[in-house]
Design goal:
The protein has 16 helices and 13 strands. It has about 425 residues and is an alpha+beta fold. It folds into 2 domains: about 150 residues, FAS1 domain, CATH 2.30.180.10; about 190 residues, FAS1 domain (Roll), CATH 2.30.180.10. The structure holds 2-acetamido-2-deoxy-beta-D-glucopyranose (5 copies). It is a lipid-anchor; GPI-anchor.
Length: about 425
C-alpha cells in the first residue's frame, strides 16, 4: 500500500517535473526501443513533448523494418508522424467511439504536406470488440489494430500499442531532401532577396554542404529586407555579409518542436573562434522567436521540414551582437574587422553569379564604419529613450529589461490585490 502510494507520488512528481518526456516513458518498454530511437532521431520526441493532448501509437520492434529498410529518414519521419494523434485516446475511449468511426488529426497533418485526408487516421470500432486503424484517405485498408494501452496521463498523453505501421503509399513516395533545391524553395517562399544574397556570396555552398548532415535555415522574407529598421547591408564588408548570412542557419536539423525545447544559446553556421554568433529561442504559445541579443525575430512559416533539412521564414533579419550591437562585456580586442571569419572560403566566384535580378545592391562597398561603436560604451543606461530605439543608429536598442517588466507586474499585482481586499 505504502509502496504503491510512494510510486504514485513519484509518478506525479516526475510528470510535474518533465511535463512528460516520451523518450523517458518509452525507455521503460524495451519492446518499443526501435520506435523510441526513431522518435529521437527524427526529433518527433520534441514535438510530442511540446504538445497536448497527444496519443502515441507505439509499434513493437520489427513493425517498422519494412519502412526503415527502404526509405530515407525523412520518409520514416512522416510515417511516424502519422502515429502521433492530436487527441487523447485510451482503451475505454477507443471502445466508445461515437458512430463507430472517427478521423483523428495527426502530427503529419501539421507539416502542411498532407494532401486531402492523408494527414488523418481512421479509427473504427469493428465487430468483435476490435478497434482498427488505417490511413484517413478514403478507401484505405484498416489493417492495423489496437493491441493494448501502454501508459496514460489523462487527458494529456496516452501511449497505446497498435499491431502494424500505418504507411500509405502517398507518404512513402515523397521526395528525399537531397533532391531539393534550397534556392528554388526560398524563392518560392517569398525570400528572393535572401536567396540571391546566398547565391552571390557563395554561402549557398556552405548551406548545401551542411544540408547532408543537418541544416536549419531562418530566411528573412522580402519584406524584412525592405523594413525601415532593416540594416543597410552596403555598410558591411563582404566578410561581414557572409557572417550575417551564415548566422541565419544552424548546422543541425531543428524543427519547431525542437526549437521550442531549446534552452540556452545555440551556435549558428557563423559561430567560430572570432565570434559567438549564437541565438536564443523564446516561445509564447505557438509563436517561436529567435533572440539575438540585439532584437527578436519571429518565425513566420515553415517552408520545408524534411529530415535533415528544415527551412523557416522569419519576419525580420537576425542581427548578431557581433555585427550590430554591443556585447554586454567590453570587448577587449581592437576592431572586429580584422577577423574575416576563417574560411567561408568557397570564394564568391562573382563571375558565375547571375545578375541579381532584384539586386539588393552590391555590398562590395568599402569597409564603412564598424557598427560596433569604437569608443567607450555610450548609453549603457537603459533608461529614457530606450522605448523606440530600434531604428536609430546609436545601436543601443535595449528592450525593456525583464526586471522592469517584473517590477511592473508586481506593482500591477499589488494594486489588484488591494482592490480585491478593500
Ligand atoms: C527526455 O528523456 C531523455 C532520456 O531520459 C533525455 O535524454 C532527454 O534529455 C529528456 N528530454 C527533456 C526535454 O527533458
Ligand atoms: C473509415 O474507414 C471505413 C472503411 O474504409 C469507412 O467506411 C469509414 O467511413 C471511415 N470513417 C471515417 C470517419 O471516414
Ligand atoms: C495535463 O496538462 C495540464 C495543463 O497543461 C496540467 O495542468 C496537468 O498537470 C497535466 N497533467 C499531467 C498528468 O501531466
Ligand atoms: C535551383 O534553383 C535555382 C533558382 O530557381 C536555379 O537557378 C538553379 O539552377 C537550381 N539548381 C539546381 C542544381 O537545379
Ligand atoms: C515607434 O516608432 C514607430 C515607427 O518608427 C511608430 O509607429 C511608433 O508610434 C513609435 N512608438 C513610440 C512609443 O514612440
Amino acid at each position: 500500500m505504502a509502496a504503491s502510494l510512494a510510486l504514485a507520488l513519484i509518478a506525479l512528481l516526475s510528470a510535474a517535473i518533465s511535463a512528460t518526456n516520451i523518450t523517458e516513458i518509452l525507455s521503460g518498454y524495451p519492446e518499443y526501443s526501435e520506435f523510441n530511437d526513431l522518435l529521437t532521431k527524427t526529433k518527433l520526441a520534441d514535438e510530442i513533448n511540446s504538445r497536448e493532448p497527444v496519443t502515441v501509437c507505439a509499434l513493437p520492434n520489427g513493425a517498422l523494418s519494412s519502412v526503415t529498410s527502404k526509405h530515407p529518414l525523412s520518409v520514416v519521419k512522416n510515417v511516424l508522424a502519422l502515429h502521433v494523434l492530436l487527441d487523447y485516446f485510451d482503451g475505454p475511449k477507443l471502445h466508445k467511439i461515437s458512430e463507430g468511426s472517427v478521423l483523428s488529426t495527426t502530427l503529419y497533418q501539421t507539416t502542411g504536406n498532407a494532401a486531402g485526408q492523408l494527414g488523418f487516421v481512421n479509427i473504427t470500432d469493428v465487430k468483435g470488440g476490435k478497434v482498427a486503424f488505417g490511413s484517413g484517405l478514403p478507401g484505405s485498408p484498416l489493417d492495423s489494430t489496437f493491441t493494448k494501452s501502454v501508459k496514460q496521463f489523462p487527458y494529456n498523453l496516452s501511449v497505446i500499442e497498435i499491431s502494424q505501421a500505418i504507411a500509405p503509399a502517398a507518404v512513402l513516395s515523397a521526395a528525399a531532401p537531397s533532391d531539393l533545391n534550397i534556392t528554388a524553395l526560398l524563392e518560392k517562399a517569398g525570400c528572393k532577396t535572401f536567396a540571391s544574397l546566398i547565391v552571390s556570396t557563395g554561402v549557398v555552398k556552405v548551406y548545401a554542404s551542411a544540408a547532408g548532415k543537418g541544416l536549419t535555415v531562418f530566411a528573412p522574407n522580402d519584406e524584412a529586407f525592405k523594413a525601415a529598421d532593416a540594416p543597410d547591408l552596403t555598410k558591411l564588408t563582404n566578410a561581414e555579409v557572409v557572417s550575417l548570412l551564415q548566422y541565419h542557419a544552424l548546422a543541425a536539423y531543428s524543427p519547431v518542436g525542437t526549437l521550442k525545447q531549446t534552452k540556452g544559446r545555440i551556435s549558428t553556421l557563423a559561430t567560430n573562434g572570432a565570434g559567438k554568433y549564437d541565438l536564443g529561442v523564446k516561445t509564447a504559445g505557438d509563436s517561436v522567436s529567435l533572440v539575438t541579443g540585439v532584437d527578436d525575430s519571429r518565425i513566420a512559416s515553415t517552408v520545408i521540414d524534411s529530415t535533415p533539412l528544415c527551412i523557416f521564414t522569419v519576419d525580420s533579419l537576425l542581427l548578431p551582437v557581433e555585427l550590430f550591437g554591443k556585447a554586454p562585456s567590453p570587448a577587449p580586442g581592437p576592431a572586429p574587422e580584422t577577423s574575416p571569419s576563417p574560411s567561408p572560403a568557397e570564394a564568391p566566384t562573382p563571375a558565375s553569379s547571375p545578375e541579381p535580378a532584384s539586386a539588393p545592391s552590391p555590398f562590395k562597398s568599402p569597409p564603412a564604419p564598424p557598427t560596433n561603436s569604437p569608443d567607450g560604451a555610450p548609453s549603457e543606461g537603459p533608461t529614457a529613450d530606450s522605448k523606440n530605439s530600434s531604428s536609430d543608429n546609436s545601436g543601443a536598442s535595449f528592450e525593456a529589461p525583464p526586471a522592469v517588466v517584473k517590477v511592473l507586474l508586481t506593482v500591477a499585482f499589488l494594486v489588484f490585490g488591494c482592490i480585491l481586499t478593500s
